[in-house]
Design goal:
With 305 residues, the protein is of the alpha+beta class. It has helices spanning 3-16, 35-41, 51-55, 63-76, 120-142, 161-167, 171-174, 179-182, 190-201, 237-254, 280-303; strands at 19-25, 30-33, 80-87, 93-105, 108-118, 146-151, 156-159, 205-211, 216-225, 228-235, 261-263, 275-278.
């Protein structure tokens, strides 16, 4: 590959990555740009550029860091690599990465050179990711169900506000601590078995169990996460208690020799409300009534035949 071919490849790579180069001669106060930088800043090629004019394209909070970086490079030869915001001659705002280094001659800085890349797309993707993370964090922090993350060493890395209420612990005290040490009662239980299984297999699992230290029933769903596992849990003590009471109630009702039914409130007269539950005596009575109704209909037909 000759120099011309290599130059074409380098220019192609620079164009594809939106990267240009610049050069500053100290004694002449003259800045040179490659064509891509002229395009980015909408400055016609052939325009005479000095350091002050080049720095004027950096806006807002970006200008001072770049100015200080250039000054440090001129004075001490310190290089820089900064992500900054710029505005072109047409007013287009964009994010860029500026890199600079000193060229020394006999220990003295005689010039600066570097690269300049348009990173607007990269920055937009990062900003979108940060917004998505902020929204997710808000949802997790404000949701009424408990949620926490464990890393690969079983240490808490995040707990939402609902976890504080259900676990009766301050999330700030738990972050960075090992779950098996903070909740030793979980060792050897379905909690540890399921957590380790999800971590090893990468498959989500759900279970419901009673946790004696907190005197509560929990419905727990465990998902694999990038750096450990994610645990979503609900306190279902009230639901379990209601289901238990309902079972006891049905057992007592079923033992009755008299018929009993539970109706779901509906529209119109109570006679038309749907039956939710009927004990054995009520079903037997209903079957007997149905037989009697059939006999009446048969008797009515025979008398009018």
């Amino acid at each position: 590959m000759d120099q011309n071919d290599e130059l074409r490849l380098l220019r192609g790579a620079c164009a594809a990555s939106q990267t240009g180069a610049w050069y500053y001669r100290v004694g002449e106060d003259r800045v040179e740009w490659t064509p891509l930088l002229h395009d980015l800043f909408a400055v016609p090629e052939g325009t005479e550029l000095n350091l002050g004019f080049a720095l004027s394209f950096y806006v807002g909070n970006s200008r001072q860091p770049v100015t200080e970086a250039v000054s440090a490079c001129l004075a001490k030869g310190t290089s820089w690599n900064l992500d900054v915001q710029c505005r072109s001659m047409t007013g287009r705002m964009f994010w860029a990465r500026t890199i600079g280094e000193a060229i020394l001659q006999d220990g003295r800085v005689v010039a600066l050179q570097g690269a300049f890349q348009d990173i607007s797309r990269e920055r937009a993707a990062v900003d979108e990711q940060m917004r998505a993370q902020a929204e997710l964090s808000f949802v997790l922090r404000t949701m009424t169900d408990g949620f926490y993350l464990l890393d690969n060493n079983w240490r808490f890395t995040f707990l939402n506000a609902a976890s504080e209420h259900m676990l009766r612990r301050d999330p700030e005290e738990l972050v960075g601590q090992c779950i098996w040490e903070e909740f030793p009662e979980t060792c050897g239980t379905i909690f540890e078995q399921t957590y380790r299984a999800v971590s090893e297999t990468g498959h989500s699992k759900t279970f419901q169990t009673y946790f004696a230290p907190l005197e509560s029933w929990f419905h727990v769903t465990v998902h694999p996460a990038q750096t450990g596992i994610a645990v979503h849990f609900r306190d279902v003590t009230r639901e379990v208690s209601e289901q238990r009471d309902l079972r006891l109630f049905r057992t007592a009702i079923d033992a009755m020799t008299t018929g009993a039914v539970m109706l779901e409130r509906g529209e119109g007269a109570i006679d038309f409300w749907p039956i939710m539950y009927a004990n054995a005596a009520a079903i037997k009575l209903q079957d007997h009534q149905t037989v009697q109704d059939c006999h009446r209909r048969d008797d009515h037909r025979s008398r009018h035949a």
